[in-house]
Amino acid sequence: MRYPFILLIFIVTLFAQQHRCDWQVWAMGGGDVSGVYQVGITVGQTAIGWMMGNFLAHIGFWQTLGGIPAIKEKEEFRWQDLEIKETKLFPPFPNPFYRTTQIHYLLDKEKPVVIEIYDITGRIVKVLINETQKRGRYTANWDGSDNTGKLVANGVYICRFIAGDYQKTTKLIFQR
Fold this sequence. Notes:
InterPro entries: FlgD/Vpr_Ig-like (IPR025965), Secre_tail (IPR026444)
Oligomer: single chain
CATH superfamily of the largest domain: Macroglobulin (MG2) domain
Organism: candidate division WOR-3 bacterium
Shape: elongated
CATH architecture of the largest domain: Sandwich
Radius of gyration: 27 Å
Helix content: under 10%
Number of domains: 2
CATH topology of the largest domain: Immunoglobulin-like
Structural class: mainly beta
Protein name: T9SS type A sorting domain-containing protein
Distance between the termini: 68 Å
Pfam family, one: FlgD_ig
């Protein structure tokens, strides 16, 4: 009776060694800050995640603290609902982009508007807008093409926005 129990302990110990990991971790993680922030912590764990083979082994201690409000904001930001008090350029969205990005802006009065895209060497790649526009809300779209219609290379580009005396530049990242 005593020997089968010792044999059982030996077999269990033998199979338990497949998932052994000798390193430890002190870590914290998180998610998107613009909505609900997911926080995770781990202290003194040995491993969490993929191990050898085609299975997922969760070993160690992982505590999820759940959603913690990071920034209170409206359900959905709508730049169209903003009152037009001044000329303003909004950050391009999405950025980085792979198909098209939208450049939103407000004009407080009628004025000439120029939106140009430059590569990092300062060479002009595309002129999106070069005209006088009335007071209002506008969107310019860039699909990653140059003035000849060819797709540009992956990389960082500069969007230059000029509306009367207002000037602003912003960075665009194109990834195909």
